UniProtKB/TrEMBL annotation:
Alphabetized UniProt keyword annotations: Coiled coil, Endoplasmic reticulum, Fatty acid biosynthesis, Fatty acid metabolism, Lipid biosynthesis, Lipid metabolism, Lyase, Membrane, Transmembrane, Transmembrane helix
Chain ranges of the CS domain: 5-112
Family: Belongs to the very long-chain fatty acids dehydratase HACD family.
Membrane disposition: Multi-pass membrane protein
Sections of the chain in a coiled coil: none
Organism of derivation: Bos indicus x Bos taurus
Gene that this sequence comes from: HACD3
Name the record gives this protein: Very-long-chain (3R)-3-hydroxyacyl-CoA dehydratase
Residues spanning the membrane: 95-115, 186-206, 226-249, 269-288
Record-level GO cellular component terms: endoplasmic reticulum membrane
Pathway recorded for this protein: Lipid metabolism; fatty acid biosynthesis
Described function: Catalyzes the third of the four reactions of the long-chain fatty acids elongation cycle. This endoplasmic reticulum-bound enzymatic process, allows the addition of two carbons to the chain of long- and very long-chain fatty acids/VLCFAs per cycle. This enzyme catalyzes the dehydration of the 3-hydroxyacyl-CoA intermediate into trans-2,3-enoyl-CoA, within each cycle of fatty acid elongation. Thereby, it participates to the production of VLCFAs of different chain lengths that are involved in multiple biological processes as precursors of membrane lipids and lipid mediators.
Length: 307
């Protein structure tokens, strides 16, 4: 009985002047790929729809394949475990899910605070922490993933701006608000949380759409524009929270310490808070400069007309 020729599943895609072929085989061994005139020949051992066998096919094009075009075909990419296409898809899926989770978290915070403000008015300012702190803790701890992604090359974002924002926000959240109950009932918590969530409900969906190669112009414009007023406002709100916390830390003595003998000088935590205020505005400059470059690169500069 003659051996039956097995043909694998072949997927065709075309974009502009490029053709893409995907052969559904895994564990491919000894692939033989060649082009003669207008016919593509493929033969390889691999695991396909009929199990582990030899698969082959011949694909005829409408016109002859020129030598220079033959090189541009990039041969034929095989779908196998660990292939570049698979890794890219996994990375995009991972980034999409991360941005989706962050978008949902910050959206919940934003909507919750907005509804409470319209219902309770200014009274909602003073219990903001107890209402949304758990979700903010979750989102800000998860945000550490962004700095890790930038550090290991999963994303192309620079590490320093991402790290400045992560450390700055978490210092305010966990140290200034989280450790001092006296700070949790202050109105400044509302403004800090509201500005953070407003920035993120535009940033994360933009990155979500980027993962699936979509560009919504309105969202793109908002992502590269809303930070211009919101980042300085956020920095100001954070600075106010630090300034308001200084007398509280001085009174309680929390995180203060005394240097060992023979110095025996008491170092108040407020001293470090004053240093942090300087670093806070330094971080604003770093992030503002980075985001401005991003915006200019994205939208370009309008050329001046020469008369």
């Amino acid at each position: 009985m003659e051996n039956q020729v097995l043909t694998p599943h072949v997927y065709w895609a075309q974009r502009h002047h490029e053709l893409y072929l995907r052969v559904e085989l895994s564990d491919v061994q000894n692939p033989a790929i060649s082009i003669t005139e207008n016919v593509l020949h493929f033969k390889a051992q691999g695991h396909g729809a009929k199990g582990d066998n030899v698969y082959e096919f011949h694909l005829e094009f409408l016109d002859l394949v020129k030598p220079e075009e033959e090189e541009q075909l990039n041969k034929l990419r095989l779908e196998s475990q660990g292939s570049p296409e698979t890794l890219t898809s996994l990375k995009k899926g991972y980034l999409f899910m991360y941005n989706l989770v962050q978008f949902l978290g910050f959206s919940w915070i934003f909507v919750n605070m907005t509804v409470r403000f319209f219902i309770l008015g200014k009274e909602s300012f003073y219990d903001t922490f107890h209402t949304v702190a758990d979700m903010m803790y979750f989102c800000q701890m998860l945000a550490a993933v962004e700095s890790i992604n930038a550090a290991i090359g999963v994303t192309k974002s620079p590490v320093v701006p991402s790290l400045f924002q992560l450390l700055g926000r978490n210092f305010i959240l966990f140290i200034i608000f989280g450790t001092m109950e006296e700070m949790q009932n202050k109105a400044v918590v509302f403004f800090v949380f509201y500005i953070w969530s407003t920035v993120e409900i535009f940033r994360y969906p933009f990155y979500m759409l980027s993962c699936i190669d979509m560009d919504w112009k309105v969202l793109t414009w908002l992502r590269y524009t809303v930070w211009i007023p919101l980042y300085p406002m956020g920095c100001l709100a954070e600075a106010v929270s630090v300034i308001q916390s200084i007398p509280v830390f001085n009174e309680t003595g929390r995180f203060s310490f005394t240097l060992p003998y023979p110095v025996k000088i008491k170092v108040r935590f407020s001293f470090f808070l004053q240093i942090y205020l300087i670093l806070l505005f330094l971080g604003l400059y770093v992030n503002f400069r980075y985001l401005y470059k991003q915006r200019r690169r994205r939208f370009g500069q309008k050329k001046k007309k020469i008369h």
